[in-house]
Automatic annotation (TrEMBL):
Keyword Protein biosynthesis attached: no
Keyword Transmembrane (UniProt): yes
Database matches in InterPro entries: DUF6622
One Pfam entry name: DUF6622
Membrane-crossing segments per the record: 12-29, 36-58, 64-84, 96-114, 134-155
The protein's name: Tat pathway signal sequence
Length: 170
C-alpha cells in the first residue's frame, strides 16, 4: 500500500517538499531580516494552511471555525511561552536579528505531513471530504501549526513596534 501511495504521488509534491525542507533548514541559522522579510514565512504558511482547509472543506463552516479556534489558541499559548521573543532589534541596521531555530522546520514538516496525509486519506476515501469529524480534526491541526507560525511573526512585529522602527518594514 505504501509503495502504491508513493508511486501515485505527483512528482511536484517531492519538489515542493525539497523546497520546504530547504526553507526550514535556512530557518535554523541566525539571520538579519527586515520586518517584512521576517514575517513573510509565517504569513505564507498561515495562508497555505487556510487554503488547505478551504480547498477541501469549503462546504463545512465548522472546519473554518476549527481552524480559526486552533490558530487563536496556538497564538495565545505561543505568546504565553515566549515564542519568537528571542529576536532582537539591530538599531544600526534597522533590522531584526532572528536567532536560528528548528521550530520552523518542525512546523513546516508538520503542515506538510498533515496536508499529505489528509490528501492520501481523501484519495482513498473521497467521502471523508464531507465527514465532519475528519474536517474538524484536519482543520484544527492546520490551525494549530499555523498559529505557532503566526505567533512568531507577531512577535517580530511586537519587537519592532516596541523599538519604534517604522522604517524597518521597507
Amino acid at each position: 500500500m505504501l509503495n502504491g501511495i508513493l508511486q501515485h504521488t505527483p512528482h511536484w509534491v517531492w519538489g515542493a517538499l525539497a523546497v520546504l525542507v530547504s526553507l526550514g533548514i535556512k530557518q535554523t541559522l541566525p539571520r538579519r531580516r527586515t520586518l517584512c522579510f521576517a514575517t513573510a514565512v509565517p504569513i505564507a504558511m498561515t495562508a497555505l494552511s487556510f487554503y488547505g482547509v478551504m480547498s477541501v472543506f469549503a462546504q463545512q463552516s465548522i472546519a473554518l471555525a476549527a481552524w480559526a479556534a486552533a490558530v487563536l489558541a496556538a497564538v495565545a499559548l505561543s505568546h504565553a511561552v515566549g515564542v519568537g521573543s528571542k529576536a532582537r532589534r539591530l538599531a544600526s541596521e534597522e533590522r531584526l536579528l532572528v536567532p536560528g531555530s528548528w521550530v520552523p522546520m518542525m512546523l513546516i514538516l508538520g503542515l506538510f505531513v498533515i496536508r499529505f496525509g489528509a490528501n492520501i486519506m481523501l484519495a482513498i476515501h473521497p467521502d471523508l471530504g464531507m465527514d465532519t469529524l475528519f474536517a474538524i480534526s484536519v482543520s484544527f491541526a492546520y490551525g494549530a501549526f499555523s498559529g505557532v507560525f503566526l505567533a512568531r511573526g507577531l512577535a517580530m512585529w511586537r519587537i519592532a513596534r516596541q523599538a519604534q522602527l517604522p522604517s524597518m518594514a521597507y
